[in-house]
Structures are given as structure tokens and as C-alpha cells.
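Reference record:
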Amino acid sequence: MSRLDLSGLRARPAQVWGAVRLVPLVRAEPISDLRLHRELYEDGPTAVRAGGHTSYISYIPHGFVANWTGDGSPAAAYGSQLSDERGPVNCAPLHLPRKLVQRQRGKGRASGGASGGLRFLPLHLALDGYLALHFGGPSVVWEEWTRRAVRDGLSPRAEWAYRGERMPGLDDALRIFEIHPGQCGVMVYVADSLAAAFVVPHPDDYRALHPSLLQDLYGELMYQYALYGGPVPEFTTRIAAEYITSLAELRSAAERRQLEWEAQHADLMAGELLDASYDVRQVYRMGRFRLSRFLPPFALHRAQHIGEAITDGKGRVAYLKTFRLSDKQVRRGHVLHQLASHEWHVGRTAEAMGISGQELVRRVHHLGFEALLKQHH
């Protein structure tokens, strides 16, 4: 388990539009040896084969391509395009966990040790990790579980999400507010609940990918917050004029207020994301960088996020994209974790959770896993 390290990124004053609050993240020193650009795909559902008779099917509007160098020299970003010469990618390698990641051989190779690109589907790495959570189902044929459950596991599993363009106010907020100098990311809040975090290595990457937030996926809870939540207040700060006698003192006071805002944002607003420990699974090694996806501990009664990240050799985030789970999605993960850790034995699992076996069966039914159980249970 590990935490997200956003060192090198600083929060700038929030920008508010209705129920949407955007908190820009800037880098003092951009990462130049890792660059991202976007490839747009055909609209509509896309299937990615996962091995055997299993497929991951989802709306996939675009893919990201990461280019990096092995010697620290600057990497080039090649800009957005409708597709490459081979057309949209509908299939990736079959071996887990790289089924949503594909290496581009030779494309973009340049001097200075530049690599070929690595194509991956943004956010779908994280969602696939959640959907595959204990996908195999019961490992032992206890009395309560059907033989079909042991044979087929949790297949199929599905989750609903909304595109960003369906989120009331998000389009206007992204269009109206300026992009800060050095901005490499943004925290998106809806009704002051963190909906998503997005971080890239370089300011030029962010400018190119800023509109992609409208094609990203957001949970149903965030959609409801945006639809029904009222305008959120703007955070303002005041500097007592009686203590200011020069421009230097005014500048110093403004810098102190900026530091106070950064600390308050990290502790109060982004704390649910930054203070949590995650189960991190590496997907691909990219020179000194690592592409990984992460799952939360599925602690009840807490906001939980899944996501994916590219980190450097010290664990600092170069790329980040997150998805806020609903309370029901957290409960699903919690129950699956508890069942798996107790070998899917209903009695022992219920005892560990401090509830009766009948209550655990009720929860399994309520969470949509009733097909796993025999009817008389």
C-alpha cells in the first residue's frame, strides 16, 4: 500500500462556476523527458479482448500516448490526431495486466534516446482494475455458492458512468476560466466533493489535453451533485491594510495567504485522495517511469477513489487520473474483499464483519451478486 506523492505541484486559487470548483495545479519545473498526447477514436462502444472468452467493453473516446526518453533529454509530444495509419485500436495484447496498454514500436523515435510511444486508455486502466476485483468468484464450493459461480465467477460485471459533457456546468467552467502559466493539472470538485484529479507532466500537454476532461467518465453521484447541487461559495482572502506599509510587505502577505490556501486545500478538500493508502499494481515500465493503477482500501463511510498514475523513480506523480466511486461501489469492493480474505466462507466472513450470516447474504443480494448464491439462501 502506498500514497500519492504530488510533490512538485502547487495548488492555485480555485475557480468557481455554479456547483463546479476547479483548483489548478502548477509545476515550478515541468517534466520534459515524459510527454503525453491524445488520439481520438470512433464514437461508440469499444471491445478490448482480455483473454479466453472475456472482453472489456466500454465507451472509449480517446487514448493517450506517452513518449519518454531514457537519458533524461526532452521528449517530443506529437499533438492530437484522429487516428494513426492503422485506424482506431480495438484490441490490445491479451496478457494481464496489460490488456489496455499497447507499445507503439518505432513511432516517434528520435535522437536523444527517444522511445516509441506507449498507448493506453485513460481511466479505463483504473475501471478495469475495479471490475476485475476478485473476478474469479468463490475459490471453494461452499454450501451457499452455486457451481456456476465457481465456474464463471463474477461475469459479467458492469458499472454506469457519465461523460463530462453531461455534467452541468463543467463545460462552461473549462471554457471560461484561464489556464495558469505552468499549469500541469486540475482538481475538479462538484458541490465541493472531489470528482476527479488530472495531472500531466508538462504545461504544453495540459493545454492540449484540457478539453479531454469533457470526454472523461464521472460517477453517477457526481452527476447528481452537479445537477441538483447549488452554487458553491468562492473562497476569498483579506489582507489587513493597517499592517501593510510597503509593496514588499504586501507581496509577503499575499504569499502567506497563498501558502495558507495550499495547506487548507491539501488537508480539507483533497485529503480524501492524498491521505489514503492504495493497493498499487504496476502495469508497464517506461524507462525511469512506471505506469500503474491503484485501488483504495474500500473502507466504509469514506470517499474512495480509483485511478492510474505514471510515477518517477522516487514515486512522484507525473501523470494522474482518478474516478470517485459511489457508496454502493465502495460497499461492493468491501464485501468482495472480506469474502476473498475468508475464502468465501459466509459464516467466517459474517463473523469477521460483526454481522449474521443472513445479513451478509442480504447484502450480497443487495449489491447485485445474487446470481452467485443458491436460491434457498
